[in-house]
Specification:
Length: 388
């Protein structure tokens, strides 16, 4: 009796051959993504003296810190990050004067500043910076310039979406009563069964996070995907990249000159008082000051509240509270943290690290399953010939 070609076999063949076609690329992309997950934490661990300070009773006023930094670094402070953690350094982004050669030829350089002493402790460049930049480039375009690498990664990611979906279908057993077997790894079995369980069970547990990673990651790979998702969601993906501060009304004659502390004081009356703060300062007298506030902590939600202030009066020009935005706008604005695993702080990064590590193992365990099946076929043929 001939075996019929079932829908399940079709899913199995699609899963198998797509996996073989993309396995090596997916292994490299997932491995580099796993390594990159905790890059900031590792860089801080490598140079703790640069990121940590001894908390004293009261920090130096931020206006005095700005003045000292501009004098010492011979540039203009264009942004300041003030962490909620009292034992962490402030981050000052400093741009060189127009035409200056320092600070990367005018491009802002971020410096760590001790808020209690005013000492500049270094830049964000460290011993692990180049390594993690390489991991990011490997993850995004396989170190292949010219757009080819990005396309290869994008195609492999599309394949990965199909692999996760077909894998979920194949996880469900033929006999419903055996569904519990797919939830555990039989550690006392032979290595072939253990390998199968590692692929099947771990793939099931990480399915949802891997699908989120893939669907959000495609926003960096293809313009057509990003534009299509923007139309579907009714909100432009990566809109913040093009947004510029609002125009700030012209100063009134005899008006007082405001300082950074004035803007922060005003922002504190509008935004939540707890959290990490980032303030971007205008390049001239025609644009607004922008203040962001994000939650801090192990389980912190990464969404930021934002207020734009008139640089001459300090009055709010526009207030954006994340919780008050429509759901579609919230989802689109979280594309990047959803992909990087930063959406719920360290907690979600741990989950993403584990899921990405599992994703790295899936091409390996899947290839082993395929090889084992290839070995079985000659044995079956030999047994059939002996019976004849």
């Amino acid at each position: 009796m001939k075996n019929t070609y079932t829908l399940r076999k079709l899913f199995n063949d699609v899963h198998l051959w797509l996996g073989i076609a993309s396995g090596l690329v997916l292994f490299v992309v997932c491995l580099s993504g796993t390594i990159y997950t905790f890059h900031s934490e590792i860089e801080e661990w490598l140079e703790p003296d640069k990121y940590e300070v001894k908390a004293l009773t009261r920090p130096i006023p931020v206006d005095a810190l700005v003045q000292e930094a501009e004098q010492e670094l011979k540039g203009k402070v264009v942004a300041i990050e003030i962490p909620q953690d009292k034992g962490s350094t402030y981050r000052f982004s400093v741009a060189a004067p127009a035409g200056g050669a320092e600070h990367g030829g005018g491009r802002p350089t971020t410096y760590m500043v001790d808020p209690y002493t005013g000492a500049v402790k270094g830049t964000t460049e460290g011993p692990g910076t180049k390594f993690f930049q390489t991991m990011m480039q490997l993850h995004r375009w396989l170190l292949i310039d010219g757009g080819v690498g990005k396309m290869i990664v994008g195609i492999a990611t599309i394949i990965f979406v199909f692999l996760t979906l077909t894998g979920l279908v194949l996880w469900f057993p033929v006999k419903r009563k055996n569904w519990k077997q797919g939830l555990k790894i039989k550690t006392n079995a032979r290595w072939k069964r253990i390998n199968h369980d590692l692929h099947n069970t771990l793939g099931f547990y990480s399915f949802l996070l891997l699908l989120v990673m893939a669907l959000t990651g495609l926003c960096w790979s293809f313009d057509w995907y990003r534009e299509g998702l923007s139309k579907l969601m009714g909100e432009e993906v990566f809109k913040g990249r093009r947004e510029k501060p609002l125009a700030s009304p012209a100063p009134m004659a005899g008006g007082a000159t405001l300082q950074v502390s004035d803007y922060l004081a005003k922002a504190n009356t509008i935004l939540a008082t707890d959290g990490n703060t980032r303030i971007t300062l205008p390049e001239d007298d025609s644009t607004a000051v922008v203040v962001y506030r994000t939650a801090a902590g192990f389980f912190a939600f990464s969404a930021a509240d934002k207020v734009q202030l008139s640089q001459h009066t300090g009055e709010p020009l526009k207030v954006e509270i994340f919780a008050e935005k429509p759901l579609n706008v919230q989802i689109v604005s979280l594309i990047k943290p959803l992909h990087l695993g930063e959406v719920y702080g360290t907690f979600s990064k741990i989950l993403y690290f584990i899921a990405c590590l599992i994703a790295t193992s899936l091409p390996v365990t899947g290839t082993m399953i395929w090889i084992n099946k290839l070995r079985k076929k000659p044995k079956k043929r030999m047994a059939a010939s002996v019976r004849v």
